[in-house]
Write a structure and sequence with these properties.
65% helix; coiled coil; mainly alpha; DUF1192; elongated
Length: 55
């Protein structure tokens, strides 16, 4: 009936976060960046292989 997750916390601004929370947020984002970079590398390999075959 409702799309909202009742356990989800409302978004907080950076000003509302503690130093520890900001540090955790930074580490979380760094991990997400690494995952994105790895996915980009995989997709480039697939594209390069396709380009080599199909030109």
């Amino acid at each position: 009936m409702f799309d909202e997750d009742p356990k989800a916390k409302p978004a907080r601004t950076l000003e509302e976060m503690s130093i520890e929370e900001l540090g955790y947020q930074i580490e979380t984002l760094k991990e997400k960046i690494k995952l994105c970079e790895a996915e980009i590398a995989k997709k480039k390999q697939v594209k390069d292989a396709a380009d080599a075959i199909f030109g």
